[in-house]
Amino acid sequence: LERFQHQQTQTALQDILTIGRHVLAGYSLKVLAVNRSKTPLLPFGVRRMGPPERQHATVPDLVDRLASHRTLGAAPRAELEWLAAHGTLRHFHEGETVVAKDAPVAGLFVGLSGRFAIFVDQGAGRRKVMEWRAGDVGGILPYSRLVTAPGDSLALEPSEVFVVPREHFPAMIRECHEVTTALVHSMLDRARDEDPEGYAMIW
Fold first, then answer.
1. Are the CB atoms for 114 and 92 separated by under 8 Å?
2. What percent helix, strand, coil does the chain show, rounded to 5?
3. 101 φ, ψ to 5°?
4. Backbone angles phi, psi at 88, to 5 degrees
């Protein structure tokens, strides 16, 4: 029994040391992201240490922000209230990964502040293929067959994104006709005018 307890104690200490190293590494990456004045992104391959911060906002506050959104603002307030009640406001630091290449896309992304871009490597080096700003939408859209991200999507500066999980899409299509129409038209227009390779469906 004493030997088992000793082993458990050693394992716990190793876990604490490992967690401590990750916490310190995460802090260092954040400092590096803030202080890299010449390059807006962290070095390629660096990932954020943990999930993006979730900002606690009231439904009325979210509805007001959605009402001023360039893409969704014209929808009836009742539909915006439905969205606000079924999504999450997230904050990303400069250089953080919104969606990593080949990772599942969580749902609809509504840009509320900041800038985002998707980077792909087709064998000739990493390049930026699309950029989004506050007022744009991305991620999975109604009737989209997108499952995983074709490239790394990063925040180019401190940014806020309102995320509606994909599992709410059937109800969103049923309850939010104007929102659904605006989303589909926005992506069709952008894909035709700016995105011949089809990257506009994801950040």
1. yes
2. 40, 25, 35
3. -55, 135
4. -135, 135
Task: Report the largest interatomic distance among the alpha carbons of the chain, rounded to a whole angstrom.
Answer: 70
Burial of 111 (C-beta count, 10 Å sphere; 0-12/13-18/19+) = buried
The C-alpha atoms of residue 172 and residue 155 are separated, in whole angstroms, by 26
pLDDT at 20 over 50: no
Give φ, ψ of 76 to 5 degrees: -60, 145
CA distance 128 to 151: 10
If you ran DSSP here, which 8-state letter would residue 198 be given? S
Paired with 92 in beta bridges are 159
Among candidates 190, 138, 140, which has minimal Cα distance to 165?
140
Contact by Cβ (8 Å): 183, 137: yes
Contact between residue 65 and residue 113 where contact means Cβ atoms under 8 Å apart: no
pTM comes to 0.68
3-state secondary structure 2-40: HHHHHHHHHHHHHHHHHHHHHHHHHHHHHHHHHHCCCCC
- Are 176 and 144 a contacting pair, CB within 8 Å? no
**Which CA distances in Å does 118 have to 9, 16, 129, 132?**
45, 35, 6, 9
Q: What is the pLDDT of residues 44-82, one digit of tens each?
A: 333 443 444 555 678 899 999 999 999 999 999 999 999
Q: Residue type at 153? A: S
- Residue the block writes with tokens 């929808």: 75
